[in-house]
Design brief:
The protein has 420 residues and is mainly α. The chain has 15 helices and two strands. The chain folds into two domains: 36-288, Cytochrome Bc1 Complex, Chain C, CATH 1.20.810; 289-408, plastocyanin oxidoreductase (Helix Hairpins). It has helices at residues 11-17, 22-31, 45-64, 74-83, 88-116, 124-146, 151-163, 174-183, 190-219, 240-265, 295-303, 307-327, 341-360, 374-399, 410-415, and strands at 34-36, 237-239. Bound molecules: protoporphyrin IX containing FE (HEM).
Length: 420
């Protein structure tokens, strides 16, 4: 699948093309890049994610002009941004709520990939880079949450950095050494805030570099599509511009309306009220609850009684995703043609939502009106998560009979259009 080659038209274009073929690059990789003609709304989330990253970087840079990463000043500097800086409240809400929007989009993007088998050959590297991007997003969001130096910032950082001390059970002193190294002292304190700020500023640029690799890897085989079949010829594709630039712009606008609702009408909904209280190392909040996008992982961590095994399960849950291209043994890509796996896909989604629910509640809570302990539900959901990827996915892939695949992308798309 190759874009038609670029022919420079003006003298300037010919001159530039032999020195820096940037217009050729843009034409081949953006404007006329051949894109399957049947991409649906779920394929706009990659563009939405790129937009989210840009918003986080721009708002973050301006916030950094007013923020002070010192434990005695950080909380007040955020209050100063909210009250005194022109448009500061907007910048801060765009950034803090933008993190949640970023995670909503990435979760949809991952589940889109799982549904349409986007990770299957020859797109394994796109997927692996995606998992690395996801890990970096988690790290960046965690570091950023510490910066306002509120109660949840401080205690969240304390709980999560302590997770590493679990490795003491393997090599005595090793886990504590990592924790001390992360802290830069004997607890979460000023040196911790300084290094977290430095890394929080750095990582989004690493993310941006990895996104470039992610898209480069995507442009080698080209996009997959909801039918999961390969592009057979030019009749199956459309140039990226204007077809998908307009479609992406439309869905980014819809996403912006959703985002704006929280920024302008319900800003505190996605933020923790405890973080409006200045960090106090001698008063622990009644409940330390992470941000919603960490809740399924938090539930996995808490569902295992042994600290070390809990931490291994937590990391294992993310690392499992790296193996998905090889765990899925099905011959067809898209779940649309997989009558059995389709059910398991929805079970997995329900399972992750259940884990999120369990993570949001106290460890000793019960399911309302039933008396079923949430701890038990969390354990079952954790077991299902691993069972899904390591057992069900390979077995169903080998045993199910997929539905017949269409001959080409163009056929079902064009046959739906009445003949003129
Ligand atoms: C900062 C985060 C990310 C950005 C900016 C990003 C961006 C993109 C873009 C622009 C595309 C092409 C459009 C589309 O198919 O939606 C894409 C495709 C893809 N992404 Fe991501 N992505 C991110 C994270 C992830 C993650 C976490 C995963 C999976 C773990 C992932 C897996 C994929 C796959 C497999 C494709 C190919 C889709 C196909 O052709 O079927 N991405 N991504």
């Amino acid at each position: 699948m190759h874009a038609p080659s670029y022919v420079p038209k003006t003298r300037f274009e010919r001159w530039l093309d032999t020195r820096l073929p940037i217009i050729r690059f843009a034409q081949e990789h953006v404007t006329s890049f051949p894109t399957p003609r049947n991409l649906n709304v779920w394929y706009t989330f990659g563009g939405i994610l790129s937009f989210c990253l840009a918003v986080q970087i721009v708002t973050g840079i301006v916030l950094a002009m007013h923020y002070t990463p010192d434990s005695s000043l950080a909380f007040d500097s955020v209050e100063h941004i909210m009250r005194d800086v022109n448009g500061g409240w907007l910048l801060r809400y765009l950034h803090a709520i933008g993190a949640s929007m970023f995670f909503i989009a990435v979760n949809i993007h991952i589940f889109r990939g799982l549904y349409y088998g986007s990770y299957k050959a020859p797109r394994e590297v796109i997927w692996i880079l995606g998992v690395v991007l996801y890990c970096l997003m988690i790290a960046t969001a965690f570091l950023g949450y510490t910066l306002p130096w509120g109660q949840m910032s401080f205690w969240g950082a304390t709980v999560i950095t302590n997770v590493f001390s679990a490795f003491d059970a393997i090599i005595p002193g090793f886990g504590s050494a990592i924790t001390g190294w992360l802290w830069g002292g004997f607890g979460v304190d000023n040196p911790t805030l300084h290094r977290f700020y430095s890394l929080h500023y750095l990582l989004p640029f690493v993310l941006a570099g990895l996104v470039a690799l992610h898209i480069w890897a995507l442009h080698v085989p080209g996009n997959s599509n909801p039918l999961g079949i390969n592009v057979k010829g030019p009749q199956d594709t459309l140039p990226f511009h204007p077809n998908y630039t307009v479609k992406d712009a439309f869905y980014i606008s819809c996403f912006l309306i959703f985002y704006s609702y929280f920024v302008f009408f319900n800003p505190e909904f996605l933020l923790s009220p405890d973080n409006s209280i200045r960090a106090n190392p001698i008063v622990t909040p009644a409940d330390i609850v992470p941000e919603w996008y960490f809740l399924p992982f938090y539930a996995i961590l808490r569902s295992i009684p042994n600290k070390l095994l809990g931490v291994i399960a937590l990391f294992g849950a993310i690392l499992t995703l790296l193996f998905v291209p090889w765990l899925d043994t099905s011959k067809v890509r898209s779940t649309r043609f997989r009558p059995v796996y389709r059910w398991f896909f929805w079970f997995l989604l329900a399972d992750v939502l259940l884990l999120g629910y369990v993570g949001a509640n106290r460890v000793d809570a019960t399911l309302s009106n039933t008396g079923i302990p949430l701890l038990l539900l969390g354990r079952v959901a954790t077991a299902y998560y691993f069972l899904h990827f390591w057992i069900i996915m390979p077995i169903v892939g080998k045993t199910e009979t997929p539905l017949p695949l269409p001959d080409s992308i163009a056929k079902p798309v064009l046959s739906a259009v009445p003949a003129e």
